[in-house]
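Sat 14:20. Reprocessing the chain from the morning session after the first attempt stalled halfway. Input below, unchanged.
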Amino acid sequence: MAEENVLRFVKTSDKARPPVFGSQSAAGADLCSAESCIVPAKGKVLVSTGLRVAIPSGHYGRVAPRSGLAVKHSIDVGAGVIDTDYRGELKVLLFNFGETDFQVNEGDRIAQLICERCTRPELMEVDTLEMTARGANGFGSTGGFGDGK
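Finished this time. Tokens:
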């Protein structure tokens, strides 16, 4: 049986707007706010979309920021993994890293939902892990921060 590639959604509010792809090649479908609220400077707010979704099997949903909100208003999103078996309302955790409060209006596009393929590996505890050239070096160890690497 072929894997179905359909994102089903239900509106739970008359203020909900359907997800929509902003362009023919957009990776994510824009999610709109079903309410008006203020995201305080240096604060966060959980915003309703008024939607419940069914992520296609073999995928997970990733709620990702919209680049324009990030660049122009310092708005980011968090806690963005939607499992295939979750059927509650889709809400978006907005963080405001800016110095001023940010107004969200009902119908504003606040995030995007990207359906990404994923596998669920078997979990196995072992005594050791094979070594790699990188080893345990992390947090900038591969360069890219003005060190010429």
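The mean pLDDT is 93.
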